[in-house]
Amino acid sequence: MIQIHLMGMFNLYKSFSAFRFKSSAFVIQKYIEKPLLINKRKFDIRVWSLITNQKVNNVPRSLAQMKGQSIMTSQYVSQIGYIRTACEEYSLEASDINKQYIHLTNNAIQKFADNYGKFEDGNQMSYAQFEQYVK
Asked: Could you tell me which residues come within 8 angstroms of residue 134 by beta carbon, excluding any fewer than 6 positions away?
């Protein structure tokens, strides 16, 4: 089983929790300039997680205190997910910087590439397939 450390993202989420937003759902992402590659191609890991905050009464003082109220935070991470891959080899050459099939892994873009599905069925790998690759 692949274990993914989410504490960095959780700490980022906590830093945003002091602000007021119109929505309570967020997508947090960052472009990685020197990514880990699969066969010289970019990939992303699709994993679903849920972080909840709940006001609770009569909790030990060791739990987080916010504005005089106790907050219980829970984190849930699904074990079901997949790896999405790009069709073309990764490059930061000036001539390749605008090539979508190198830099974007989402299916809405990749499905139009000539190499779509050439390396993985539907440009996707299961976690088990990814584990075999990294071994």
From this structure: none
Domain count, the chain: 1
Residues 6+ apart with CB under 8 A from 41: 85, 86, 87, 88, 89, 90, 119
Measured in whole angstroms, how far is the alpha carbon of residue 79 from the centre of its chain?
13
- pLDDT tens readout for residues 37-89: 999 999 999 998 888 877 766 655 555 454 556 677 888 888 889 999 999 99
The DSSP output letter for 38 is: B
Classify 108 as helix, strand or coil.
Answer: helix
Query: 72 is in which domain, residue-wise?
Result: 37-134
User: Which pTM value belongs to this model?
Assistant: 0.63
Domain contains 23? no
